[in-house]
């Protein structure tokens, strides 16, 4: 996701600071909105943002109180939060992180520091999201669940051996790439086991039978190896 797809909400009762942050973040390519109180922030669709920059000391409802409310709501429980605050005691920082803060920046701060911290939090969030979504690999009606090690073909779970599962995982995760037999051996079989090229061929044949209508996707490149072709 490029910067111009990231939406950030700055929540601070200092109007001038909101505008300064908005200007500099927009210069970096982010889409930025501001709110001058926690109550105002709650009027927004918070699920549409990828990050909150949140002041702690504000009016009737503090940033900590807002964060508690967000964490208690399933829809916003994982919304990344960076606290911006003049309260920089150890207890305040511990409170912030216990509320699930992704970072904590003490005022006064440099704009450059904020930009670096924002970039780091968004990168970590994107990486975590990728890891979570990557727990399944699928192509049309063919799906591998990497957690419970199952293969589903058009809604039906098909039994696979560990070797067959790892072979399909290798081919499906890098669709379009030709793997030589030796590459497949190195990836799938233990290093202390002697495996012949013919063993790879036999397992590929069994694999094709098990995935039924998707068998044609596992293509042989004579003299080179195998690939999963869309």
Which structural class best describes the helix and strand composition?
A: alpha/beta
Largest sheet: 5 strands, parallel
Strand line-up in the sheet with most strands: 2-1-3-4-5
Number of helices: 8
- Tell me the fraction of residues in β-strands, as a range: 15-25%
Uncertain ranges: none
Given the C-alpha coordinates, what overall shape results?
Answer: elongated
Distance between the termini: 25 Å
Average pLDDT score: 89
Helix content: 40-55%
- The tally of beta strands, per DSSP, is 11
Rg:
25 Å
What is the H/E order? Answer: EHEHEHEHEHEEEEHHHEE
Structure in words:
- This protein is α/β, with parallel strands linked by helices and 230 residues long.
- Helices cover 40% and strands 20% of the residues.
- The chain has 8 helices and 11 strands.
- The strands form 3 sheets. Strands 2-1-3-4-5 form a 5-stranded parallel beta sheet, sandwiched between helices. A 4-stranded antiparallel beta sheet has the order 6-7-8-9, with helices on one face.
- Helix 6 packs across helix 8 (197-210).
- The radius of gyration is 25 Å and the shape is elongated.
- The relative contact order is 0.09.
